[in-house]
Specification:
Layout (H helix, E strand, L loop, with lengths): L8 H4 L13 E5 L2 E4 H5 L12 H25 L7 H8 L4 H11 L6 H21 L3 H10 L6 E9 L2 H12 L4 H8 L23 H7 L9 E3 L2 E11 L4 H6 L1 H4 L2 H18 L2 E3 L5 E3 L4 E3 L6
Antiparallel strand pairs: 1-2, 1-6, 3-5, 4-5, 7-8
Helix pairs in contact: 3-6, 4-6, 5-6, 8-9
Length: 305
Amino acid sequence: MKHRYVIYGLIAAVALIASACSNSDVAATVNGTAITDEDVTELRSAPVGDTVSGEQFRSDLTTLIVAQATLDAAEEEYGIAGLDTQQGREAYLAQASQSELDILASIDSNPDLGEGATDVVVGQLAVRSAVVVEITNDPDVLLRVWQDEQNLLIEVCVRHIVVPDRAEAQAAYDRIAAGESFGDVADEVSRDDRSPGGQLQCPAHPTDYVEPFATVTATTEVGIVTEPFETEFGWHVLIVDERSFPVAYEEFAADAERWVPEIVIQGIWSNWRDDALGRANVAVRSQIGRWFPSADGILPPPDSP
């Protein structure tokens, strides 16, 4: 996915930055709301005097354009407001998931990013969270998910052992097959020291895992220890203790938040966000470039760096 649409793109960006223009200059407007050069440079912590990278400035400005456009669309469509205020950010953080908190921690610890970056990402995560709730309560959306993504509506409870090579995995499998406790073997040999007894988060969606771990958890017989198999993290044996799925649309729709996996939610959110950007009235200062969301967000002007 191109950087214009990825709020997490701030995490990996390199340091720059100080604006070549006055801090009072308007870099862009979104539905009449001004974004200044100072707003853009506040995303970065580089000292004054560094050279502005035209590409990086456009990328950071794109992040702010996307943030404003989605805020506006959330208010227009669902009456959701105040998510970019201190109160709104605090309310979101009080119920944020651990994975979202991990994203924010990585931004806070990045010396290249300023306080503005954290505020923007918190605001965008808050918008995403609120909009996803609204969308997944839409009967038309739920029916499409049921019809098109039913094979992904699975929950599992899994224990696993991961070791560096096949021989160690086979040895662990042989010990369990001979009658030793899966949990005892896992605690002794597994490299995953964050999962006592090998127990992963329960329940979870198979799509939360890398392949082929995901496929194995979705298809292997419940209660049977698997033969060793390899992922990018090493060699595994696992056992699926439970597997659940909704047997009827009514069961699914009654608790969609439980059944819809993150991979489907991300697709729903991306489609809504793209639509919000397509409807937004965006104008960028001509010296910076031209807003063109179907390309890279902001196209540079001729002969720009």
